[in-house]
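User: Okay, second chain of the day. Same drill as before: sequence in, structure tokens out.
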Amino acid sequence: MTFANYPSLKGKTVMVTGGASGIGAEIVRGFAKQSAKVGFIDLDAYGSAALADEIGETATFEICDLRDIEALRAAIDTLRDRLGPITVLVNNAARDDRHDWKDVTLEYWDERMATNLRHMFFAIQSVAPDMIAAGGGAIVNMGSNSWWEAGGGFPAYTTAKSAVHGLTRTMARDLGRHRIRVNTIVPGWIMTDRQKDLWVTPEAIAKHADRQCLPDLIDPVYVARMVLFLASDDAAMCTANNYMVEAGSI
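Assistant: Same drill. Structure tokens below.
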């Protein structure tokens, strides 16, 4: 594949949550290849260090449990001190752990909201002043097509992911007058190492392939490429919308 280069991303200061592995790691790599300055946040110290070593001086990270909002704010402040004001935010972090609706407790429900939704708003709240001062910015929230497909087996996850769309649209309205664009990317079944380790089987792949218009499995790089586009000046008039990367599987 030959991919586009986005000159407008050169020198941009970018923050990515959940950047140590999977889709997040490809997003970090993608921005680094565009000569952006990338800070990422993750709970995985080993994976974060390995990715930063791979990329080199254009990437830095902070270890943080995003369920702890004060820790998140502190990590953002640290990355800002290192890299400068943040003008691109990618709210990527999430976990699609399976669970039976009959077993969900109040505590588990609240923890799933904290893992998959709550930190997105508070990350936006933390970086929006940087973008306002800069005269604009781009925020990309990671959704999921699991609830569009009426997928079962993880109701707390799909509820959180459906709420991402409401967050995107209301913040696009509130921040639009500052030329801050807010969009949602909707990935299909992306072939990350986590998915391969936990849920990819020949039977599952065959069933899923019947739902896709395109025959190929989706690599994380294709989600990262959509993120780059939405963060670039090429997407200057794109906001409050969903951008599907699901091979036509809805």
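The chain has a mean pLDDT of 95.

User: Thanks, on to the next one.
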